[in-house]
Queue: 2 jobs
Job 1
Amino acid sequence: MRRCGTTAGGGVGNLALRGVSKRFGSTVVLDDVSLEIGADEFLVVLGPSGCGKSTLLRAIAGLETIDAGEIEIDGARVDHLPPGKRGVAMVFQGYALYPHMTVRGNIAFGLKNIGTERAEIDRRIAAVARMLEIEHLLQRLPAELSGGQRQRVAIGRAIVKDPKVFMFDEPLSNLDAALRSRTRQEIANLHRRIRKAMIFVTHDQTEAMTLADRIVVMNQQRIEQVGTPLQVYREPATIFVATFIGSPAMNILPVTRAAGSGTLQWVRLADGTQIETTASEASLPGQGALRLGLRPESVRLCGLGDGQTKALVDFVEFLGDKTHVLLSLAGGDRLVALDGASCPVHAGESVGVLFDRAATHLFDAEGRNRGLTG
Amino acid sequence: MDSCEQTAAPSTRRTWAASKSEARSGLLFVAPYLIVFAVLLIYPLFSGIWLSLHKADLFGGSQFIGAQNYARLFRDPVFLTAVSNTLYFVLLTVPPLTLIGLGLALALNNRSRWSALLRGLFFSSSVLSVTIVTLIWRMVLIPDGGLIANLLTSIGRSPVAFLSDAHLALPAIAFTTIWWCIGLPMMLFLAALQQVPRDLYEAARLDNAGRWRMLASITLPSIRHTALVVVVIELILQFQLFGQAQIMTLGGPNNASLPMVLFIYQVGFQRWDIGYAAAASEILFGMILIAAMTQYFAARGRESR
């Protein structure tokens, strides 16, 4: 059960970032990032390669210094502390297991370094090994383990230190599809059991949508939106979020302003079709281009005479449980509609098209969603 | 069962035929190396052993005398001195070359401009020929106007004749050798250090490991194979000390810096007693082989434990 209703950037801050910036020479890699994470929250940082998400994680861990801003954990500033003193643990993309140490040695290493007593180390390793079902692997070297087993050991090495914040840097990207799905569920279960703050970095939206309490969508070194998976899907703050989340991606069509009346704004497609949007007339900028966003599931096919407009079917992709229909409108716009398994249309046919008003998004020239009420 | 055997037999034959033809083409690929290896290494090795069993002159006939050359060697005080000098020299050079090479590599394993410059500087001595190296160090070590002599004189001390003192000659040659040869171990260690994944160090930093802990628990175990290679290479190289001793001291004073290869050279090419020199060569070969193999098996034993 996902916790719903956490406001963007809200929650009781176990970890807080305020105005964090980082540069490598003249290249900005983190640009004024602020964020709060609850003490038992599962936060997923999602974004394309090079957007700064891994740097953000490394800055929290202390593996990168920051040039501006503050990082607090449990109300105390940690950005000047070395990584080992911050109370964080990290699972690396390539696991980073010490190759010449046994699984037991790997898990015990962090505890030995802080002078934990041997009996306590043994007790904690036993508990972690039981939890992760790796008891039979404790005497093996990492080279003797499968990818999934290494992943568990890396997680065990993080858990055993009992950190305040767990961090995962794309930990599933080295696993095959079946194992990735299973490990995803195991990580979700693990979070339910240990109820600690977790930050999970990924570029895979499926991982983000299935694991997160809240998703932080990053693009070009900045946070584009913070919200629950439902929020970022249904109420994307920007055109980037709208197109990055969802598969197939949201249709983006250039439109012109048509009639508006208070809370209703009509827009016109290139073929002249007028569509009612959720944006109010007052929320729109005085001038500048507008773009209409429509999820493929909000574009419905119907008989030629029944639709708001008509379109030519370019291509039909049958995927078993659903069908992607690629359409061309008379004005030259192209869009994708999502239909059921028994979609009756074929390439070359003309069909009627209906748009779901409640699911429309209107983006201004800067790419901001003008239809959000929040 | 029958059908299985019927189908299995031709397939086995095919596999065997295929592997035979594969082996033949494989042999063709390795043949050039094997021929060179046989002509330049295997043949001289056995020819040397055969020669060591003869009383042979460099220009004349030879007479089979069995193991007499070996028996004579073990009674020859000059040869025994050469053996002990060689072992002492190896002890003086191999551990420092390994440790200093590692230390330099650890210190210079970063991307700063200074490190790149210093890496080049430390390696530059390796490209010099033995003649240049010994010339430089003779100028440093000679008591009459040498660099060290001048320094000592300037502080009111009398100059030291490093190369004509029986106790200092070999250490001076060892010092020269370390200066000359330090580039290779440093580069081998640097290459190994750059292979250690960076995220291991990051994981160790998150695990509260300090600098020494990281060196002991991450770096050294990760480069142990290279350390073995460095030790074995240096053992083989330093057992064969020749040029420095020949040019700097001629093995003197009183054979105090006479190494085995110089002994072999003097016996074989100045006294023309080529069978005796071959026997001394075989003993040197055996010593190098034992030293390198001991090192190799000791490291493998530690690994399997």
Job 2
Amino acid sequence: MTMEIASARTAVAKPPAPGLISRRVLGNVALGLVLLAVPFWLPLVGGYTDLASRVLIYALAAMGLNLLLGFTGGLSFGHAAYFGLGAYGVGLMLKYETHSILLALLVGTLVGGIAATLLGPIAVRRRGIYFAMITIAIGQMFYFLAVRWNSLTGGEDGLTGFSRHPIKLPGLTVPMGSVGFFYLVLVCFGACALLLWTVLNSPLGHTFVGIRENYKRLIFLGVRTKRYLAISFAISGFVVALAGGLNALLDNFTSPNTLNYTLSGDFLIIAVLGGMRNFWGPLAGAVIFILVRDYVSSITDNWMTVIGLIFVLSVLFFPLGILGFFNRKSAS
Amino acid sequence: MGLILLFNAFNGLIQGAFYALMALGLALILGLNNTINFAQGAFMALAAYFAFTLVPYTGFWGALIAAPLLAGVIGFAVETVLVRRLYSRKDPIYTLLLTFGLALIIQDMIRTIWGAQGKPLAIPGFLNHPLSNTYFFLTGYRLFVVAVALIGTGALFAVLRFTRIGIRIRAGNADLETISALGVNIYLLRTANFIIGIVFAGVAGILAAGQLGLNPTMGDALIMPAFVAIVVGGVGSLVGSLLGGLIIGLASGITTAFFPAASEVVIYVIMGIMLVVRPRGLLGQEGLFE
């Protein structure tokens, strides 16, 4: 076991950066500062805080998906299912059980994540196009469940009747207005980014990358590739479910559309557009995708065509994504 | 009870014939073009709307033939301008996302041209007439759907079996590189194959519209059962897709008799069971597209 992981590590590990503080660390610190200051500078350039929350939520979902997609090589077209399960989990908890949004988020994340953990092993039985079709179909199963199970989910009209309550910590009450909620999203985003970063730089993450790069070879080396694919599937499911829960909190509403494969398509294009081989690619993709959608839908009824064009053009001209495109430019 | 069950099973089979027709078009394109055509549902809707516009001029029968061909022309343009560029990319994600984006664009175009409201598609009066009221409620239209599905499937298999292009398509499915080396223009072949797949989608779309009416998103609800049919039947086998369509139609019909709310979910359950018991599907080839 240790041997093949060691070889996988040498295949992907980069040489240590020179100097005490590398450019990468500086970049991440700068990114963190920019994000922390969003509520202060965004209104100045004509944005609003909820829009930033939406960007971060979609970025979080796409980053979770990207662990499976970009780093393990599993093309899931059904991750909206776990997003939607997280959303319904949070909505139902807040509506019937509790006023603590942290508890609701925990439950929503667990519901979506456990579903992914249970269904991943079925999906990873096949790879490639087949894997994509299976994940879509599993996702649509939840979609139809939500549409049909009227008494619980509210059917096609969606689930309403819950709202964000202030977070009560011992000796501290955090209000959940737009700004307060943005920081909650940011904390979740940061924690998950740290988690994904840690995973990717661990032997586990190197095994994932090995599976992406050469599936057969890893089988020959004795790695249980399907098991690792399922692990990657599960981790990404938990992250996506948390994003879904946050999305329900942002809207105080959730509908079967949060389970539908069209949303999975949105997450995929966010990852591809930003650069699915780059850690921060999905964040870049989410910024572009959400801002364009927000702007275009305010000026024309044909915004779906514009979104469709984003799909077509980014597939044709930016197969490596925006970040991949610039990285290659700067490398050459 | 037994009679109701029989009736629902029969209805399910009719639905299954329809799914099979959809799945065949998808499976054709998947086989030779290595593309999951997400826009298949949008092409269905497009053909149905073409038919809607053509019916006043050509009548239903003329539209049934002309509209899928028109959709085929659009399919030709899409394949030569866009899809073709991606054949060399190994990762299936690109064609998936491309056709997904195309589906959005086509849907939006339909909405802009014909409006978002649902419309009825006029079908000949005698098809609307109930054939039997005693035990089954059965309109001629449902039988007509089965007849078209049978004719379409029969024609496809005849083409694949007996014509030169059909033999090349089958050979291409087996080994594209070799037939290319033998002098077959595989780009032309793939284009032709794509068009045939779209024409199939078009016919299915018109049939669906005759029953359910037209709306821009009509394809969305129909493409998923076709995916499931392919997974159940096995990727790489057209007969498998056919069987898969019939099986899920039947299952969905029988479930309607007992537990109507689950009639959509049951096909995914069947797919799940199939994946656990026999991952490659009924007649699928091991390791294809993996």
